[in-house]
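Progress note, sequence design subtask.
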């Protein structure tokens, strides 16, 4: 019996050893291609040739097979999902615009990379049903984790743990064939690069599918934004991801069977979003909502009930579906990184502008309930500044949010809800979108245009009175009395008194008019020298004769001060005065008579006229003596300067004969000053605190939105009202009027520096957004990543710089696209000078010069978007090799070239010429600020555009020469001043004899006896290649050309071949062309010249 037991154990042990040995044979099953389910046939037919080859036999197919075998035992039966997903994928790829076909005529060298990237789907479909489940997991992870490096880290941990799990199970002495297959799968090497490519293909497909099913995606997004539902996660990433994945597949399989499901976990909702299969929904909450999608692949009985969810409250950043995990395979070294994945959505540029509006409202802490009213404020502001004079353009940065606000106001129904959702998204997530959130509390909100002192200042008639009114507002809110302060404004004289300083003094605090009996009882006023009874009688202001003669003081609407609340409401009971030393010249005295003024001998009340805004006369009393300032110094502990200033005359205003001032507040240019007499104990601190708080909008409540809108839209026709001056408003927002030689607004802007500080930062960010809009409006169908909202554009390296004009260059355009596409990558444009294309997601951005005729006036910075990608993970920036481009050696046959005399006919003899993009094995990472991570996301990929003739390699293009000045353009139109050219036949023949016909590439590469005419008429790929190849060095040519440029005519060296591109056209006078060419060439040229005809 013991012998039998020993024999049995020996047999079992032998079986186990044999099975393990069989598993360890490591058979490469990944090369096997299976028949795809019939539902995927349409997708397979629509897939491009290179992508289909990769999906069936290439690296992506091998990855699908390996992952499918590795996780096969964990995937539940999902036949209905496999069928439904095949139908949906086929519908998506056949949607209009989703999968354009590449052709040489439209896409040139990039034709092979055009079209939707469904590589991972077809690879899974041809690798067995289980591999389709792997693709579904890839879509879930790509949807949940915006950062591809995070998704790749999850994949790496899943593969590692699954391999470890299989090998542990293999220790079981009883192994079946399934275990053997699993061990074989675990022995297969799956590199991180394989995983990165697998994730990249799934991401590209999500972008394509989202665009094709835009309506359903928007509908689902509107639902998810109102709930907060996590994907259940614990401490073990492997178990959590597998559980969520299986839960989503089982749940959706049941729905496809027509079995209603109820769910309180975010996994199945994430799957619905990622797989684009939409069951009807019942959303339980404060009110039950029934959402009908009517999806053709989903039976109507398959209803998903979303149960109790976590309501989003306040500013919860994790609204919608989110997934929190700990990534231990993200960095080379360190503790596991906690990452929260949220479903990424793509935004159009118009949608991003609505998000920017929400971000700006969040910066100002505007309540959500006032979104509509706030939008009206922006529209009113834009309309007001739009009334500025024609020579000034309204701020483009303001137009961004104003147009977004107008669209929001004008929207209705579902569109209104979507716009509101976008604004709310910016409000919640866009704390750092335009400016750093840490700066929000230190800035004056609403550009300062809801602060009463700013509004009143901008309602002035010109820049000088704007600065004066600002000082008066500070005096009012600081509680200064009429006898305590004086405003001085020193400027240069006008046309008649150039180089003469004009001193204009203004009262700082308003003096109320009192009734005569009240005035008599007031010793301080009744005894004031120069005060007349008319000054104390409010009725005198109603007498036109009195108003036009003696009482020519300026009456200005002022803000209510804390001490004088009635003064603002009773404008007629308050008045100001002003004095000036500007005396009209003899030729100006006619203005007095026109104004109906009388010559008054009293120097205190004689009115002076100086030319004001629009040629109108501003009236001031005569200033008899100027103020003398004996001491003026900055006090570092105060906003006020220390001074000792004496006014030798009471001016009929002050209660003492020689007012003295000890403190002063001034603008940076020291043009306008607010002089203050000696403060009583503690009053200075009170004053400084008051003006500091009012300048930071912390002292008094802001003007209501309704009142601010009323002021902005006021026409000035209402009684006792003054409209906001559009020119002053424009200068407040943009800076001094460029057409004003004296920059007269500078003093006022200097005073308002604190209120305007936010404008500079916000305008820079919005100007950067306007710059991006200018780029993206030419990129048909391009979208941006929503993660840019949280990352922000305030520090974009391609963005607007202070006091610098925004320049469109190829490098800055690609830097902008890189940031907008990824939502994260912020690259310095100086490092992208050689980049000619960018690939990310389902988009390929190509320099338009490589897709157009070389004669076309295409700017170097122009970029064209192509649906497709180069099949590489992350952000691929295509650059040419640093070494010289290669050209094939010359043929040794003497019959290879003919160089027939040119007959004057323009033909296309290069129809077999094609351009092809390929990659060298050289790619190197580009630093974008992420350090220590394993899966780098930005690469410079060395790329080559080669020229082929009937399938045979001719040479590689020196791509940078396409953007240089070596390829000159020459129009062929006849000079119209002479009508039809009347050249002698002998002259025509002489010109043709000096031209040689070039109809083959061998003739291009060799040396023609005279000026060569490359005949590739109206064939832009052939003309593009012909404009560059002749200027390149041959592969067997050791001659070193002198590349020195001639600055006088910007032409290359005399020894360098030159290509001149002729305009496409049929009516060509070759005598005129020849003469123009001769003018372009230096005397006694030694270089070969090619005409690309």
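Output:
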């Amino acid at each position: 019996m013991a012998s039998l037991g020993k024999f049995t154990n020996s047999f079992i042990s032998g079986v186990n050893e044999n099975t393990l040995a069989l598993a360890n044979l490591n058979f490469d099953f990944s090369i096997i291609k299976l028949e795809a389910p019939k539902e995927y046939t349409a997708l397979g037919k629509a897939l491009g040739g290179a992508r289909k080859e990769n999906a069936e036999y290439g690296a992506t197919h091998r990855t699908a097979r390996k992952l499918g075998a590795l996780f096969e035992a964990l995937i539940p039966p999902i036949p209905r999902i496999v069928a439904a997903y095949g139908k949906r994928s086929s519908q998506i790829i056949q949607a209009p615009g989703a999968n354009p076909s590449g052709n040489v005529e439209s896409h040139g060298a990039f034709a092979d990379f055009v079209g939707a990237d469904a590589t991972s789907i077809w690879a899974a479909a041809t690798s067995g049903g289980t591999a389709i489940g792997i693709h579904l997991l890839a879509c879930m992870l790509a949807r949940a984790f915006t950062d591809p490096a995070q998704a790749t880290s999850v994949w790496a941990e899943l593969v590692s743990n699954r391999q470890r799990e299989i090998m542990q199970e293999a220790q079981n002495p009883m192994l079946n064939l399934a275990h053997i297959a699993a061990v074989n799968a675990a022995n297969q090497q799956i590199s991180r690069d394989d995983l990165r490519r697998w994730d990249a293909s799934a991401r590209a497909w999500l972008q394509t599918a989202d665009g094709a099913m835009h309506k359903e995606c928007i509908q689902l997004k509107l639902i998810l934004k109102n709930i907060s539902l996590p994907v259940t996660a614990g401490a073990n990433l492997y178990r959590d991801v597998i559980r969520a994945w299986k839960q989503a597949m089982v749940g959706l399989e049941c729905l496809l069977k027509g079995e209603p499901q109820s769910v309180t976990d975010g996994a199945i909702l994430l799957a619905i979003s990622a797989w684009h299969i939409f069951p009807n929904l019942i959303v339980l909450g404060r009110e039950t909502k029934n959402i009908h999608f009517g999806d053709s692949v989903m039976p109507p009985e398959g209803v998903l009930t979303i149960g109790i969810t976590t309501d989003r409250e306040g500013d919860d950043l994790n609204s919608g579906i989110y997934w929190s995990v700990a990534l231990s395979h993200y960095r080379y070294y360190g503790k596991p990184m906690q990452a929260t994945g949220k479903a990424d959505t793509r935004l159009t540029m118009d949608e991003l502008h609505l998000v920017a509006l929400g971000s700006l409202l969040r910066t100002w802490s505007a309540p959500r309930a006032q979104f509509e009213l706030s939008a009206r404020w922006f529209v009113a502001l834009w309309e007001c500044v739009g009334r500025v004079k024609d020579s000034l353009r309204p701020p483009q940065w303001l137009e961004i949010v104003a147009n977004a606000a107008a669209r929001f106001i004008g929207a209705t129904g579902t569109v209104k809800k979507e716009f509101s959702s976008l604004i709310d998204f910016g409000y919640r997530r866009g704390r750092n979108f335009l400016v750093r959130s840490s700066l929000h509390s230190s800035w004056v909100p609403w550009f300062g245009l809801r602060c009463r002192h700013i509004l009143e200042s901008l309602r002035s008639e010109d820049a000088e009175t704007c600065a004066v009114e600002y000082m008066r507002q500070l005096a009012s809110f600081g509680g200064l009395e009429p006898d305590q302060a004086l405003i001085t404004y020193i400027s240069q004289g006008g046309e008649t008194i150039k180089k003469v300083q004009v001193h204009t003094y203004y009262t700082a605090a308003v003096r109320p008019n009192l009734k005569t009996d009240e005035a008599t009882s007031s010793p301080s006023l009744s005894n004031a020298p120069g005060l007349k009874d008319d000054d104390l009688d409010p009725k005198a202001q109603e007498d036109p004769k009195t108003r036009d003669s003696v009482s020519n003081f300026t009456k200005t609407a002022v803000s209510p001060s804390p001490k004088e609340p009635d003064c603002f409401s009773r404008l007629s009971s308050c008045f100001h005065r002003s004095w000036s030393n500007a005396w009209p010249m003899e030729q100006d005295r006619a203005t007095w008579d026109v104004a109906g003024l009388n010559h008054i001998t009293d120097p205190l009340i004689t009115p002076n006229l100086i030319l004001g805004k629009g040629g109108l006369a501003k009236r001031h009393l005569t200033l008899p003596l100027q103020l003398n300032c004996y001491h003026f110094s900055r006090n570092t502990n105060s906003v006020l300067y220390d001074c000792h200033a004496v006014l030798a005359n009471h001016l009929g205003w002050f209660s003492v004969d020689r007012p003295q001032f000890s403190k002063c507040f001034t603008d940076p240019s020291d043009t306008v000053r607010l002089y203050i007499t000696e403060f009583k104990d503690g009053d200075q601190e009170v004053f400084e605190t008051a003006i500091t708080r009012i300048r930071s909008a912390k002292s008094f409540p802001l003007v209501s939105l309704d009142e601010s809108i009323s002021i902005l839209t006021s026409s000035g026709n209402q009684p006792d009202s003054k409209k906001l001056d559009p020119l002053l408003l424009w200068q407040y927002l943009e800076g001094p009027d460029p057409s004003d030689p004296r920059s007269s607004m500078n003093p006022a802007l200097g005073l308002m520096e604190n209120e305007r500080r936010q404008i500079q930062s916000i305008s820079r960010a919005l100007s950067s957004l306007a710059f991006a809009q200018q780029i993206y409006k030419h990129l048909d169908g391009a979208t941006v990543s929503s993660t840019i909202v949280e990352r922000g554009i305030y520090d974009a390296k391609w963005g607007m710089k202070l006091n610098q004009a925004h320049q469109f260059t190829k490098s800055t355009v690609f830097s902008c696209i890189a940031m907008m596409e990824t939502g994260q990558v912020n690259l310095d444009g100086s490092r992208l000078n050689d980049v000619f294309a960018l690939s990310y997601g389902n988009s390929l951005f190509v320099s338009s010069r490589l897709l157009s005729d070389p004669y076309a006036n295409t700017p170097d910075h122009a970029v064209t978007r192509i649906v497709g990608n180069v099949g590489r993970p992350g952000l691929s920036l295509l650059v040419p090799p640093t070494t010289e481009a290669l050209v094939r050696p010359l043929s040794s046959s003497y019959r290879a070239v003919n160089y027939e005399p040119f007959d004057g006919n323009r033909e296309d003899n290069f129809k077999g010429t094609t351009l092809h993009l390929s990659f060298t094995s050289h790619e190197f990472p580009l630093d974008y600020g992420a350090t220590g991570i394993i899966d780098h996301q930005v690469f410079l990929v060395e790329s080559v555009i080669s020229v082929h003739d009937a399938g045979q390699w001719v040479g590689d293009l020196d791509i940078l020469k396409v953007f240089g000045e070596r390829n000159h353009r020459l129009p062929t139109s006849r000079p119209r001043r002479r009508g039809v050219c009347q050249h002698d036949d002998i002259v025509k023949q002489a010109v043709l004899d000096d031209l040689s016909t070039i109809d083959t590439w061998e003739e291009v590469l060799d040396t023609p006896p005279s000026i060569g005419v490359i005949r590739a008429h109206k064939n832009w790929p052939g003309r593009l290649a012909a404009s560059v190849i002749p200027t390149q060095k041959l592969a067997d040519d050791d001659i070193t050309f002198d590349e020195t440029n001639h600055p006088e005519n910007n032409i290359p060296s005399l020894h360098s071949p030159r290509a001149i591109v002729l305009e496409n056209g049929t009516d060509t006078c070759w005598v005129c062309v020849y003469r123009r060419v001769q003018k372009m060439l230096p005397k006694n040229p030694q270089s070969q010249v090619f005409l690309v005809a």
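The mean pLDDT is 82. Work on this subtask will continue into the next period as scheduled.
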